[in-house]
Amino acid sequence: MMARRGLNQRDLRAMLSTVFFSYAFFLCCFARDTITYPSVAIGNDGPETLVSAGERFELGFFTPGESTGSGRYLGIWYYKSNQRIVVWVANRNSPLPDDGAAFAITDDGNLQISHRNGTSYWSTELESTSNPAYREAKLLDSGNLVFGDRNNTLLTTILWQSFAHPTDTFLSGMNMSENLKLISWESKADPKEGNFTFQLDEGRNQFVIFNDHTEHWVNGESGDFFSSERMPDRMTNFLVNTTGPVPHPKSSNITLPPSDYNNTRIMLDVEGELQYWKLDVDRNWSLQWMAPRDKCSVFNACGNFGSCNLHRMLACRCLPGFKPASPESWRNGDFSGGCSINSAVCEKNDTFSRLKMMRVGKQDYKFEVDSETKCREECLNNCPCHAYSFVKGEVNKRRDRQPSINMCLIWKDVLKDLQEANSDGGRDLSVRVAIADAVVDGKSGGTSRKKKPLSLIVGVTIASVIVLSTIFLYTCILMRKKAKRRESQQKTERNAALMYGTEKRVKNFIDAEELNEEDKKGIDSWLLISVLMEMENL
Asked: Topologically, how does it sit relative to the membrane (predicted)?
């Protein structure tokens, strides 16, 4: 009986030892994705991390790649990516100064980053609970850190999740509502909240990037000739659809499941540029789209009544009939103040400057119209009306189709977000000015000429004729001198050839005949006289 009891004790010890080492081996060789209470915390001075079950994301402490300081942050990044791509940062505004901090569930039931000196650097800030044992945090394969309460049941109540508190990156599973914002990093080395914010303006139902409190970029709308570029439909669906099939942008009959977006992300970078990235088959991230794509794509880059053109040395300039509101600011490269009109409008002598190939912000209203004359009168008779555009309907040659409608677009508010389209997507815009400041059929930005007085035109014409006549006479004299010089040179060459040929013939005759010395002298004299006579005849 005693032997059996001793054997059982040895077996029990062996079994417990096996279980202990197996558990230790499991912890060492297999990454965990969950934090429970109480458990070993994740420290910022060790290699401990959380890795999602499918090994897509990893959570741990890190130092930004370009940082020169010692600050440490708790973040989430793509697991085993060639370059660490951080998608979420907990303590972005409160970096840890040194080692000695840990990430764990505290006694009051919160997730918290605590320093050994008792300082809290980040917390979920939930109401305290007397029973934190049922609380757990789990890193999902979507990149979402979920903190919940099992409440002694198989179901977990989500109390907090990182997807509701993003930093600068949007992932599949998030929903860009009015309460959700992406905030850029301060710099590539500092995840602190920066100057740029991306969010949905539900009042206008448009996505907007703000630079502090100023609009930096606004998602464009289809139709007419608005200046801002539109976000791709696929990207829009990604931002607002997180459940159910997503309509395919090219066909209403094809749908894309939400899982199709698992390898995509949207990021707001430190310069305020919204970037849409996709992971390709080679596991490399490729940039699919970005905005604003250049200086002129920034909302109202040149201010009110200022137009933008990247092909000019100075991108911004005022519309014809307008001048910089602050000349000093413009000289310093700050065009945000825009332009002011040279002469007062809403007078009897108002007219319109026609600017070609323009893009402009959305009109205040539009209506059907028979001709441009009525569109012009509508604007002229309603003050303030700053501009109009007559959009002529296309003529349909097929009899089974109705002709499209002519439209009149009216701008009563200030003109903003103006761009010169050059050869792509622009239309004529007629801007109201005083008659002294008008240009007719000019290119955008006042590049056309004003009507010149008749005396000035006549004077320029006469001066041009005199200059051209002088050039013509000088050219004729120069050509005549060259001709005479060429003729003289040719005559000299002929004379030399003649002399050489005559002398040669005479010498050949003397050598061929048997002549005495007296005869040869006579022939030499005759040769000289003959040559001179031939030269006289030339």
From this structure: Single-pass type I membrane protein
Could you tell me how far CA 398 lies from the centroid of its own chain? 41
Residue among 202, 445, 197, 428 at smallest CA distance from 315? 445
Rounded CA gap, 290 and 188, in Å? 18
Tens digits of per-residue pLDDT, 17-37? 443 334 343 443 446 999 999
CB neighbours of residue 145 within 10 Å = 26
Half-sphere exposure (CA, 13 Å, Cβ side) for 338? 13
Give the containing element (helix H, strand E) for 187: strand 182-187
Q: Which helix (H) or strand (E) holds 105?
A: strand 101-105
C-beta of residue 501 within 8 angstroms of C-beta of residue 507: no
Rounded CA separation 18/490 (Å): 118
d(CA 346, CA 383): 6
Q: ∠174-176-178 over CA atoms, to 5°?
A: 135
- Asked if residue 319 lies in contact with residue 418, where contact means CB atoms within 8 angstroms, the answer is yes
Cβ contacts of 481 within 8 Å, gap of 6 or more? none
Instruction: List the beta bridge partners of residue 443.
Output: 356
Provide the whole-model pTM. Answer: 0.71
